[in-house]
Amino acid sequence: MQAEGASSLDEVFAKVRRHRTHLSRLMNAHDATRLVLGLLYLSRTAHAAPGTGVPTWSWLQGQPAGRGSGIRAAVSKCLSHWLPVADEQSADVDTRSLMPVPPPGSEGPLHALVQAIGSTQRVGPLLDQCLRDLSADQADGSHYFTPGDMARLMVGAVVPRDRHRVLDPVCGSGGLLVESHRYIRERVELNPTMSLHGKEQHAHTSQVARMNFAVRGITAHVFPPGDSLAEPEREPHDIILANLPFNQRDWAPEDKMEQGARRSGPPPSTPRARGSPRSGCWTNRRRSTSPNGAVRAARW
């Protein structure tokens, strides 16, 4: 296959942005971007042998255009089959049901998005742009993703090594873990054997992280959705990276405060510290770091 030029990729970018904008007029921008992420995910994962009866990406590409064409149902069917569940041990927490349903009248932009995404082999840049768009869509609620340049700076500061266990307790879309994987891959020139773990409080964002890793071919474990400040992971890790949340008053829910005996120390005593998730998360990080290694965590 002939390599794609910059102009060809720019054209795909423009088409995806245009049809995403069209889709966002029929639903909110946040959900429209998540649907585009879902299509990017399907383009890399929805593949099966012919005749198996499984909805695939090629089957989706063959759906006709036009209102009433059935592509809305086809997209939903494909996503329902291929999207990852939250955790193999937690069947009651099924993030597949969190993907937005394509609204009536979206047949045109959906078909165009499938064709545009299917026309390129370089979905990485499209994925990066979608994650930036998604972060911008939800930034007003202080729920954002770590920008790429900040992720590179933070990972470079802690210098991860191959075979390290790396945890992001507030992983968002998984950007810091993706950057940790890239950092090692560029240095060992092999697929890293490090263990990447992430946890995210919001179920739909946890789903985004799983799709992000899958599209890039990165093996990572995302824990079931939960609050790392209230219930930190117990397994030790060599490196803990986190871009901490802000504008959140309580460092742990009230019902968790009654379980102080289970903590390795009291909650922050000053009002400012108690109201800061940064102080609580820093305490939890120290508890989750491997006893055989130093605490190596970037704090912004």
Automatic annotation (TrEMBL):
One example of a Gene Ontology biological process annotation: methylation
Gene3D superfamilies reported for this sequence: Vaccinia Virus protein VP39
UniProt KW keywords: Methyltransferase, Transferase
Annotated SUPFAM superfamilies: S-adenosyl-L-methionine-dependent methyltransferases (SSF53335)
InterPro entries xrefs: DNA_methylase_A-5, SAM-dependent_MTases_sf, Type-I_RE_MTase_Subunit
Keyword Nucleotide-binding included in the entry's annotation: no
Highest taxon of the lineage: Bacteria
Ranges where the record places region Disordered: 250-300
Extent of Basic and acidic residues compositional bias: 251-261
Record-annotated DNA methylase adenine-specific domain positions: 128-261
GO molecular function: DNA binding; N-methyltransferase activity
Protein name stated in the entry: SAM-dependent methyltransferase
